[in-house]
Amino acid sequence: MRSPFPGMDPYLEDPDGWTDFHTRYLVELSNALSAQVSPNFFVRVEERVYLTQPDFGRKEFVIPDVTIVKHPRTAQEHSTTYGTITTPALVEPLFDPEIKDRYLEILDSQNRQVVTTIELMSPINKRRGAPGYEDFWRKRREPFESQVHWIEIDLLREGERPYRISGKSDYYALLKRGGQGSRLDVWFFNLRDKMPTIAVPLRPPFDDVPLDLQAAFAVTYERAHYAESIDYTRDPPPPPLRAEDAAWVKERVQQWIGARMS
After folding, report:
1. DSSP string across 142-176
2. H helices within the chain, ranges in order?
């Protein structure tokens, strides 16, 4: 089932579920691009790792691991109506100091050089003081000074943005073409808008390829069954919506729930 909204779903901005959406959406973007750029280029999902501390204080950045805390001294079994269950070892959560952030790279198939980097922004690289904030913005400057193309997609209303595009829209996609100075191509879109189809540059003599952000979102939403897992009876996550947008969201959700029940 489709989302209640024509474009970005604000309920997916919840930090508690963002990692899941971020990963699924990146994979779908990768699939859409791979079909267009092969065989001259290929798309790879890359990962960077940030270190954090147990007392960082924001639960959405803490990804727990597990550790074995107790083994049964002897193998024991528990009988049930359906069969016998062997007693398991006991485990408890263990803080993992690593936070992983994924992004896409398009590489030249012949020399395996990076041609284009595609970033889907996350809370960890939009909030000052977050584990990956400084590291991300430092790395962001590198392709701005090289021949590598840089694409940045921001589907989070909360957090900091580059000063040249801050405050212009709810969401945006940004393209910095390699070797063209500080020029930016930006697609601005709001909560009520359909997501744009953006240009993804390669290397001469190959033309740009289109990347339909909305189509990738629709596939991601349906394959993840977000219609069943999101609680649309509550308010959207922060930041607060403008009054007129809040009323619009409420109306869209009510119509969507009504259509499901009919």
Report:
1. HHHTSSSEEEEEE--SSS---TTTTTS-SEEEEEE
2. 15-37, 133-144, 213-224, 226-229, 243-261
148 Cβ contact partners less than 8 Å away, ≥ 6 residues apart: 114, 115, 116, 117, 178
Who's near 141: CB < 8 A, 6+ residues apart?
Answer: none
Q: What is the pLDDT of residues 88-147, one digit of tens each?
A: 766 655 444 455 678 899 999 999 999 999 999 988 887 776 666 677 777 777 766 778
Residue 118 bridge partners (DSSP):
104, 151
* b/e per residue 35-53 (b: at least 16 CB within 10 A): eebeeebbbeeeeeebebe
Q: Which of 81, 37, 31 is nearest to 200 (CA)?
A: 37
For the stretch 162-180, pLDDT in tens is: 888 889 999 999 999 998 8
Ramachandran assignment for 57, one of left (phi > 0), alpha (psi -120 to 50 degrees), beta (any other): left
Q: Does the pLDDT value for residue 259 go beyond 90?
A: no
Dihedral sign (CA 13, 218, 244, 11): negative
**In whole angstroms, what is the distance from residue 200 CA to residue 43 CA?**
12
Backbone angles phi, psi at 21, to 5 degrees: -65, -45
Residue 12 φ then ψ, to 5°: -80, -5
